[in-house]
């Protein structure tokens, strides 16, 4: 069972920054991608940013130019640097990892428990 340990959420004012961390309990060699999703009350969960094992990144249009996703393979950790935060960024942020099984035959999705980000105006 793969565990994802998220941290870094909190309450900030508009224009400020936060950095989220997601540490995986599995070797980076088995991780195909890691991403951040968010869900605001009454809304569906949506992709924020994703990074592949090859370093390719993809962002939601709403965060391009403000958020940066990165990874540290030595720590099995992905980060989401969030700058110029807006009230509409308020949501629970979830980390997801796509992990290959031992032997590499299958892939499974694993989710973190979520961390609250609240941006006040």
Question: What structural keywords apply?
Answer:
seven-stranded mixed sheet; mainly beta; elongated; about 120 residues; four-stranded antiparallel sheet; single chain
Please outline what is shown here:
The protein is built from no helices and eleven strands. With 121 residues, the chain is an all-beta fold.
Question: What does the model show?
Answer:
The chain is mainly beta. The protein contains no helices and 11 strands. Strands 2, 4, 5, 6, 9, 10 and 11 form a 7-stranded mixed sheet that branches. It has a 4-stranded antiparallel sheet with strand order 1-3-8-7, with no helix packed on it. β7 (67-72) and β8 (77-82) form a beta hairpin. The radius of gyration is 14 Å and the shape is elongated.
Write the layout of secondary structure elements.
Blueprint: E1 4-7, E2 10-13, E3 18-24, E4 31-39, E5 46-52, E6 57-59, E7 67-72, E8 77-82, E9 91-100, E10 107-111, E11 115-120
Parallel strand pairs: 2-11
Antiparallel strand pairs: 1-3, 3-8, 4-5, 4-9, 5-6, 7-8, 9-10, 9-11
